[in-house]
Design a protein that fits this description.
This protein is of the alpha+beta class. About 45% of the residues lie in helices and about 15% in strands. It is built from 32 helices and 28 strands. An eight-stranded mixed β-sheet has the order 21-28-27-23-24-25-26-22, with helices on one face. It has a six-stranded antiparallel β-sheet with strand order 11-10-9-8-14-15. It has a five-stranded antiparallel β-sheet with strand order 3-4-7-5-6. Strand 25, helix 31 and strand 26 form a beta-alpha-beta unit. Helix 18 runs antiparallel to helix 26. The radius of gyration is 32 Å and the shape is globular. About 45% of the residues are buried.
């Protein structure tokens, strides 16, 4: 692990200790030089990630590693401690603007130069040259960097530091050790560390010196497919000579795929060049003999043998590995192994029976985040709380949750129903599942009777649920009563009693969520929507007709949230001093409400904001994650959308917008019914349509209420758990209250009951979370590790346009505003919001934009529902929209047909 920042540079006391602690260890000079056989992965802080892995590799039966030694991080610390200019330069580098590439480049170069020119003390130099002499002075060596932040489970740092091949002689080895130390500060290494949240001053460099291997062939083995993520498939890249030819891109490699001990695919490249060692040191490119160029670098038997070694290494380290290898006359040598950090983790498998003779049972998982419009990584308390309160079992992987749909896919009847309902929400999920099912032997069908009638979710007239609209008020009252009881009772609980109470509260939570009447009310609105879209498409040729018919439907708590923020802007707009003050408020400035009252109009403005927070303060971006800060905890988050409303709207906009939408829906209804009556059997069609319009308007708003109730309950749980965390801090069990976010709910309960916690667990969980944040979760994931995102199989999208799912009808052209964080929003009238996903917390922005484009979403997810409420043309599920569309570009959103054009 990286050392603390204060234990690094210019420490005279530590330097004195180095001198006093110099002693012989294992026949080589220590603590500065250690043989590879003396180290393992527990010593990464002393020898760096690469050396630690090499030491562990050398202990695996049947795995051969070239002999060598390691110059430890203590040697590096000693050398830089004697060069005070290094510490000063690192302080300047830490203070540099991370976006100023030129400054980072120049400062990195200065640090490298200072480290490379630093004098190596005589005793340290003697230790290194003595190790070289014992290994053979005339031998050739590979001198390779081994940083403490390298080959970690969460960040590989592959290729970030330097390697030098065929280094001959003690003086040359010393020179290249200094070069390796300096390579810790290449621009690419500094940039990589910043992306992974690692301070330059906490990373140290060891150097591995190994006897050079002169191979016939070399390359890379991935014990899991690095593209698909499949853990059953290993891939081997191979070429002639040294591996530098492959790494540098000088030649294309032969590529072999191996599954279950058999080569299942191979591509043999034409290899015209290779890299070989020079007798006096260094390397050179050479031409491959014409008769050898199309010969495979490895035989199939050698490939299978190599993968067998790789599986042994993978088992030793416990995760898929990226392995560098060499082949000589007497077999394979392993010169490096590191975790493959780009793979999305696989949920812990649940034992399931065999599904076919001679086959293996495998699982298929669907992403919960894509259904909930929150695909960011969650901290352990967040995902474990969602597990505890969800209606179906959920599995964690990479800080996200997945549902195992294998049992439903195994039966033809349930499979059809599952694909139908998921396809309505998100066609990409359906396509991803169908892609998995098309693979030979995956999830073989279980014999089952053919389903009777249409599958679940089919919008036939007979399937539309008839529910009395009066139940909506009853359901809201039930929810509010249950919530009030929770609020009353939870404040009296603490310690173990709190967790006993929460176990009961979670059961009540699930009872409210699964209320059959509530589900009927939700389905009544959804089925009526499907019916209208299907029937009016058939009878009138209208696409997505329900979008206009549901404008300004009553009782939608999420759309009301956006309109109510317009009313807050009305309380601020008349007071220029308030507007000027808010323009200077930082989103971290959460005591700004106290300062408002000092300004003209400030008392009324504060009351308006606090009233808003009283109703919606439990909401936030990513609200399914209990660890996310709520608006009432960070009210300054609302300042940017409030200012947008002040700038873009006039007084009374909320009431006007709602009434305009209602009138537009009424006019659409009159138009549709009039056109239907002119058709054959028109009166019947009009009567049925009127009934469905009434149904959808009665229930469309309620669909958002259960989520609101969940988030209200979550806020009460959070307040109680943070109060408990405060008590743990006072008792010295936790360092700070938010440490509880790094624990699962069960772990937190155990800590509360035992009053004990291993501090290393918190640090490890933080590191894991940082790595999970960099991963993109797939819509569908298999137990083999295949990450499947799905694709649109359409031929109606113009060339160059971005395909998506049409969720809110209409077409609009405007300036794209690519916004990844609600706090960064700065919108003007007519802008089109482009983002990864939107949950209810984004609704305040919807009142001020002309259209919506998201990477994630479906027909009935929150962003789609509110876009329809506000009459915004919207296309969701647009793959990589935030990367393919640049902020400020003009785009045209085709909300009716489901695609986006980039105009320039």
């Amino acid at each position: 692990m990286p050392q603390p920042a204060e234990d690094t540079w210019n420490d005279d006391v530590r330097d004195k200790r180095f001198d006093e602690g110099h002693e012989e260890v294992g026949g080589v000079s220590g603590p500065y030089v250690l043989g590879l056989g003396e180290v393992d992965e527990d010593q990464a802080g002393l020898v760096g990630g690469k050396a630690a892995h090499l030491g562990a590799l050398s202990r695996i039966d049947g795995v051969r590693v070239p002999d060598g030694f390691c110059v430890t991080t203590d040697a590096f610390r000693r050398v830089v401690a004697r060069a005070p200019e290094v510490g000063a330069l690192l302080d300047r580098l830490a203070g540099a603007d991370p976006d100023d590439r030129q400054a980072v480049r120049e400062l990195s170069a200065e640090v490298r130069r200072a480290v490379e020119e630093a004098v190596i003390p005589d005793d340290l130099a003697d230790g290194i040259t003595g190790a070289v002499a014992r290994s053979g002075e005339g031998a050739a060596y590979a001198v390779r960097s081994s940083a403490t932040a390298e080959d970690l489970p969460t960040a590989s740092f592959a290729g970030q530091q330097d390697t030098y091949l065929n280094v001959v002689g003690p003086a040359a080895v010393l020179r290249h050790v200094s070069r390796c130390w300096a390579s810790l500060f290449t621009e690419r290494a500094v940039t990589y560390r910043r992306r992974n949240g690692i301070d330059d001053r906490t990373v140290h460099m060891a150097v591995v010196v190994q006897r050079m291997v002169f191979p016939d062939a070399s390359g890379v083995l991935f014990t899991a497919d690095p593209v698909t993520g499949n853990r059953r498939t290993a891939t081997v890249d191979a070429g002639f000579g040294l591996g530098e030819a492959l790494v540098s891109g000088l030649v294309n490699p032969d590529v072999f795929a191996v599954r279950d001990g058999e080569v299942v695919a191979r591509t043999i490249a034409v290899k015209e060049r290779a890299v070989h060692a020079l007798p006096g040191g260094g390397t050179r490119e050479v031409a491959v003999a014409p008769e050898q160029r199309e010969r495979p670098a490895l035989t199939d038997a050698q490939v299978v043998e190599l993968v067998r070694l790789g599986r042994r290494i993978e088992a030793r380290f416990g995760c898929p590995q990226d392995i560098e290898w060499c082949l000589t006359d007497d077999g394979f040598r392993i010169v490096q192994s590191r975790p493959i950090t780009t793979l999305f983790p696989v949920p812990v498998p649940v034992p399931v029976p065999e599904v076919a003779e001679g086959g293996r049972a495998r699982s298929v998982y669907v992403s919960v985040g894509h259904q909930q419009m929150m695909t960011d990584a969650m901290k352990p308390l967040g995902w474990s709380m969602w597990q505890r309160t969800a209606m179906v079992p959920m599995h964690e992987a990479g800080g996200r949750l997945f549902v195992d749909v294998t049992p439903r896919l195994a039966s033809p009847a349930s499979r059809a129903a599952l694909l139908d309902i998921l396809g309505k929400g998100d066609p990409l999920v359906r396509d991803a599942l169908e892609t998995v099912l098309e693979r030979d032997g995956f999830a073989p069908p279980v014999p089952d009777a053919d389903p009777v009638g249409p599958p679940a979710g089919s919008p036939s007239e007979a399937s539309v649920t008839e529910v009395d609209p009066a139940v909506v008020a009853e359901l809201v009252e039930r929810s509010e009563t249950s919530l009030a009881a929770l609020e009353r009772d939870i404040r009296t609980k603490s310690g173990p009693e709190l967790f006993d109470f929460l176990a009961e509260a979670f059961e009540e939570h699930k009872r409210v969520l699964s209320d059959p009447l509530s589900i009927q009310a939700i389905m009544a609105g959804m089925e009526a929507t499907w019916w209208l879209n299907d029937k009016l498409g058939e009878w009138l040729g209208e696409k997505n007709a329900a979008d206009t018919l549901t404008l300004s439907a009553p009782g939608n708590i999420t759309s009301e949230m956006g309109l109510d923020l317009l009313d807050v802007a009305d309380a601020i707009r008349p007071h220029p001093e308030l507007v000027a003050f808010l323009n200077g408020v930082d989103v971290q400035h959460d005591d700004f409400l106290d300062e408002l009252v000092k300004l003209p109009g400030g008392t009324g403005a504060r009351e308006a904001i606090e009233t808003y927070l009283g109703r919606y303060g439990m909401r936030c971006v990513g609200e399914i994650d209990i660890t996310r800060p709520r608006w009432s905890e960070r009210p300054a988050t609302l300042v940017p959308p409030i200012l947008d409303n002040v700038r873009n709207f006039g007084p009374g906009a909320a009431e006007r917008r709602f009434e305009q939408g209602r009138q537009k829906a009424l006019q659409a209804e009159r138009d549709v019914l009039s056109r239907l009556r002119a058709l054959p059997d028109g009166e019947r069609k009009a009567d049925e349509t009127k009934r469905m319009i009434d149904q959808v308007r009665a229930f469309a708003g309620y669909r958002e209420y259960p989520k609101y109730g969940i988030v209200c309950r979550y806020f009460l749980y959070k307040q109680a758990l943070l109060a408990e965390a405060g008590r743990l801090v006072r008792d010295g069990v936790l360092a700070e209250p938010e440490d509880v976010y790094c624990l699962t709910f069960q772990e937190l309960e155990d800590v509360v009951r035992s009053r004990r916690l291993d501090d290393r667990l918190i640090a490890r969980r933080r590191e894991e979370f940082r790595s999970y944040e960099t991963l993109t979760p797939p819509r569908v994931l298999t137990s083999d590790g295949d990450a499947v995102t799905g694709s649109y199989r359409r031929d109606d999208v113009p060339a160059g346009a971005l395909a998506g799912l049409a969720v809110s009808t209409g077409s609009v052209e405007g300036r794209a505003r690519v916004i990844l964080d609600l706090a960064d929003a700065e919108l003007e009238e007519g802008d089109i919001l482009v983002t990864r996903f939107t949950d209810p917390s984004w609704s305040p922005l919807f009142v001020g934009v002309a259209g919506l484009v998201t990477e994630v979403g479906g027909l009935m997810t929150h962003g789609a529902v509110i876009a329809r409420e506000y009459g915004l043309p919207a296309v969701v599920g647009v793959d990589r929209a935030t990367r393919l569309i640049r902020d400020g570009q003009r785009i045209r959103v085709h909300g009716t047909d489901g695609y986006v054009e980039i105009l320039g």
